[in-house]
What does this fold into?
Amino acid sequence: WCGNNSFGELFPNLFAKELRQNSLRANRMINNRERLSWRWEWRDALSQSEEQELIELKELMLV
It folds into this structure.
C-alpha cells in the first residue's frame, strides 16, 4: 500500500501482468549485503511505458 491506495490501484498495467497478485512487498525485494535487487514474475514482457512504471513503483516501495 501507498497511503490509501494499493500498488495495484496505482499501477494497474503492472498489476495485470503480475503472476502472483497477492504477494507482499517483502516477497519482491532481495536484500543481500551488497545491494538490493528485485524479483518479479510477469505474464508477458513489459512495454517501455510499463518499464517506466516499474521504475516509479520501485521508488515508492523503497520509501
